[in-house]
Specification:
Number of strands: 4
Largest sheet: 4 strands, antiparallel
Low-confidence stretches: none
Mean pLDDT: 86
Helix content: 55-70%
Number of helices: 6
């Protein structure tokens, strides 16, 4: 009787072990399948055009054009991805000028002792970004698109788009010159109305900053 119980117990253990082994093998296969799917999801199943353009990895630099490459996240439609890529490219154009005036403005304020209540580089950056966003960048279309199509784990296509955004440098230079001349006139007008000698000096220096010193940095 005792021997029989031992044999039964061993049989039950064997069955349980076999079931565990099968379950572990099944889980391993599923994990492998998920890994393969994840790796596949990192690679596009299609690209348009087929050959990846050089500008995707290296933004073109020329004397005549300002270039930016906008990139989208993955979207269910190509149209959504294109819209985001173009928006990203326009945003880069805006930040490009905002960063330039901020950097040059900080150097100028330190050199000429201009206090932030007269000229704040951060405020100037924000103002110029708004000017560019409403002017040069607004509605700027992409010159070229490069699209990657992915197959998601949900068995659906997802689109990621790169957009080459370019603006004629002569056009951009003209807009920047008009902006700088306008700001120079504003600060000169404030200087003429200012009674405090030190503040007037700072206002005049800021006018000079926009009227001449800053302009070569922006165009």
């Amino acid at each position: 009787m005792k021997r029989k119980l031992v044999l039964i117990a061993m049989a039950v253990m064997a069955v349980n072990f076999s079931g565990f082994a099968k379950s572990a093998k099944k889980q391993a296969k599923e994990a492998a399948r998920q890994r393969e799917a994840a790796i596949a999801a990192l690679k596009p199943i299609q690209t348009i055009p087929e050959k990846r353009p050089s500008w995707v990895d290296s933004v073109p630099i020329t004397n005549k054009m300002l270039s930016f490459v906008g990139v989208s996240n993955q979207y269910a439609t190509d149209a959504e991805a294109r819209n985001e890529a173009q928006g990203d490219g326009r945003g880069q154009l805006v930040k490009y000028y905002g960063t330039l005036i901020s950097d040059k403005g900080r150097k100028a304020t330190a050199t000429y002792g201009i206090t932030s209540d007269v000229f704040d580089p951060q405020v100037a950056s924000q103002e110029l970004e708004e000017f560019v966003a409403e002017g040069l960048a607004k509605g700027l279309p992409a010159k070229e698109f490069y699209t990657e199509v992915y197959f998601t784990q949900a068995s659906k296509n997802a689109f990621k788009v790169y957009a080459l955004m370019q603006i004629d440098k002569e056009q951009a230079d003209k807009a920047m010159q008009e902006y700088c001349n306008q700001k120079a006139a504003e600060y000169q007008s404030k200087a003429e109305a200012e009674k405090d000698a030190e503040k007037r000096r700072q206002l005049e220096k800021t006018s000079e900053l926009f009227g001449g010193m800053l302009q070569p940095s922006l165009f």
